[in-house]
Amino acid sequence: MSITVRYFASLREALGAQEILAHQDGVTLGELRDQLIASSDAHAAVLARGKAVRCALNQKMSSETVSIPDGAEVAFFPPVTGG
Q: Keywords assigned by UniProt (predicted)?
């Protein structure tokens, strides 16, 4: 299964615009965030649990308890972004 992870604002500056990831069925947004934090120092710096980061699933604001379906688009961004 694969998903597209997109980053916006300051997260995009640190991690790039997007990445395609393989993931297991039933993974939640919170679990994905934890996996990304563990994947590199850059991810850990901007997605750390102490940082205010919002997430969306298929362009809809979502909580971290939501499961990610195959082919989904996940977005991470700071709570305030510029125009």
A: Nucleotide-binding
Separation between Cα atoms, residue 60 and residue 43, nearest integer Å: 22
Tell me: the pLDDT tens digits for 34-56?
999 999 999 999 999 999 999 99
d(CA 70, CA 73): 9
Q: Does domain 2-77 have CATH number 3.10.20.30?
A: yes
Give the pTM: 0.91
Q: Characterize 40-62 residue by residue with b for buried, 16 or more Cβ atoms within 10 angstroms of its Cβ, and e for exposed.
A: eeebeebbeeeeebebbbeeeeb
For residue 61, the number of C-alpha atoms closer than 13 Å in the C-beta half-sphere is: 5
Domain segments of the chain as ranges: 2-77
